[in-house]
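Deliverable D4.2, example record:
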Amino acid sequence: MRILVVEDEKALNKVLTKHLKKNGYSVDSCFDGISAKEHLQSDAYDAVILDIIIPGMNGFELLQWMRAGGSDASVLMLTAMDSTEDKVKGLDLGADDYLTKPFALEELMARIRLITRKRTGNRSNIFTIGDLSVDTEKHTAVRAGREIILSAKEFSMLSYMVMNKGRVLSREQFLSHLWDYDYEGASNMVDVYIRHLRKKVDEGHDRKLIHTVRGNGYVMREES
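Output generated by the structure prediction step:
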């Protein structure tokens, strides 16, 4: 899941970005509404953590612009404003959730998991396909009762695939959703991680879950 953090308090922005990356998210950050708009115009984000009082273009204005332009990125609004009027305005403009400062990082993570479930239609933090289950809260993956040991990036890729099971994902989609704005690594990085996942997830099992769709990308699905 790729997240854009829009927060003008630099210390808080740094803490949020560091904590999200530590938990396996791909994160870009900026400090004002104009920069946020530029990020959103050039890249695809699954979620935006958006402060209301930011320079250049406030959070309400940015959110209104996003929804008018058809963006379906989930939006979690962060603000020191805790009045009912401000919350109602944000939600009516298309925000998915609202968190008032100060807040605990654990609550922030729980709310991100909540908006992720809303996007996927899943009612819990556990996503399954066949005998594989992926718990996005505990960061664990289990197949046929056996835990799979994964790196942070491997877990992010596996989570992305199981959340989009049955859907063919291109290399470009993997890069745009799982690597941040500054990534300048090898162009075959997606293929490298897919090989890692196949070895850890599918090796030793008769029924494979990770499949190549030649010329298009990869898909996670059950095949008889």
